[in-house]
User: What shape does this take?
Amino acid sequence: MSTEATSSPWNRVSAGVAEAWTAASRFAVVALLLLFIFIVFSITQPDFLTSSNIQNLLSSVSILFVISIGMTFVVLTGGIDLSVGSLLALTGLILSKLFTEAGLPIGLAVFITLVAGALIGGCVNGVLVGRVGLSFFVVTLGTLSLYRGIVNIWSGTKTTYIDSWFISDIGFRHVLGLPIPIWIMIATFVVAFVVLRWTYFGRDVYAVGGNIEAARLSGINVPRTLILVYAIAGLAAAIGGIVQAARLGASSPLVGESTPLDAAAAVLLGGTSFLGGIGGVTGSAVGVLFIGTLQNGLSIAGVSSFWQQVVTGAILIVAIAIDRIQQDPSRFRRAVEGGGHGPTSTSEPGMVDEA
Assistant: This one.
């Protein structure tokens, strides 16, 4: 490329944009977008900025919020759990069976359901990925189908109602002016934030995601760390399953089908890198609120739920694209200048680094 071409105003502008993007935090960008759409919906939709709608918005995203927090632990290690939606449905069914058929006290049924979610996540996905060494994508894609099949067989594809005041309270009771699902969101966030920021386990999670071989050589028990992060994702799915059952008053085999993609979109939008080692639960919380606010505002505006799915899918694609740009800022400059290489090019810088 000639000197004149490299010094052209367009190339200087593209280089400046790339450098600005590298310096900017994606977390801050998404937070600003959240503020923008919140203001837009507040102005254009009279029913949006009301106390009842804000509480409804937060309650409706509580399930996705909790699951996204659990998903963050997995993504930080460089993986993803596609089975969380099916596990959400399965744990809701477990709760129903323990209470309505086994006759256990509802408190004990809830506790066993939480333990079951953690054990299923850790002992199936965690062991297969961490101990056996299988691909997280293959394993969680398989368990997605496995858990969903178990749910359909066990439930007979029928909804099972849960007649319990305790479950009803979880879904709708207000404490200090806020519904319990919102308090569950807050508690989940605080615990996860403390674990990732101030515990040795949190340090291990980031180390495994940053460089798994270096983490192993430094003495970190990588298989145990991976088992625990998938157990956390399973526990989060169980919490989500309980809240879902509480809000519906029943366990349904139809819930959770879009949850993995929504959670992945929220986590990636929040700045957690798909390659691992970068991000945290604060960004994931902002990502969930962004998606929830967008969907809530579109619903009030009368936009079809099918179009909302289109928007969510587009957001996921954009989030993944942004993640790649953040990992390789020069990719953005090459794309703008029209000189980018295809993903299979041997001159791709990312490919050279991996080699």
